[in-house]
Amino acid sequence: MTVAPPTRVRPDDSGRPVPPGGWLGWISTTDHKRVGAVHPAHASVAATAGPALLVAAVIPAVVHALRRSPLWERIAVPAAVALPLLVLTHAWAVLADLGALRPPGGALVTRPPLLAAAVLFWLPVLARTRHRLDDAGRCLYLFLAAPLLDLPAVGVVAAGRPAAGLAMITGMLPVGVTAAAVTWAWVDREEREARAAGPGPGDAHCANGAFISRSSAVGTGKPGR
Fold it and tell me: Taking a C-beta distance cutoff of 8 angstroms, is the pair 213, 201 a contact?
């Protein structure tokens, strides 16, 4: 029976011993260990940025596309209820992801209430319901909601996850962008209405139910004697 000789560690040109499998095998093993160490951080970023984008971008897009659906009228709640409901539900979901208030089931339990609260939050802004806010109310509503929804990100950063906290803030940016867009549309509409309502020197005016033109009324008075 032939016995294989034992594997010896051969030195390379610099005199350092070459590990079994060569330097390529050692580098491959090191890379796998490094990827395994970084993977939880990427998972944490995705776990915070994903729900934020759903709340701030995907759900409002769906509600706006279906803004005339009769379903919204049945489930809509006043803005004074929808805003604190989303703020509290979002904070609870974030703290649950951090492990502070994690319920049995984790995200499978926290995400559905968060998405439902997000739908109720956007209805007073985008849908045609009895609880729809006017232009000034929508601006105040959204500008108040933007910083409140970013508060849980402070807790994420304080828990030692700065990348996840920044990802959450970035995911919530569409709320602020929507607030700015609503404000701009409101100001532009007010200016156009003001220009349309402002009469010129030759425009017709309504006085006592009859339309009288300024230009035609000039010189119609009787001369004094």
Answer: no
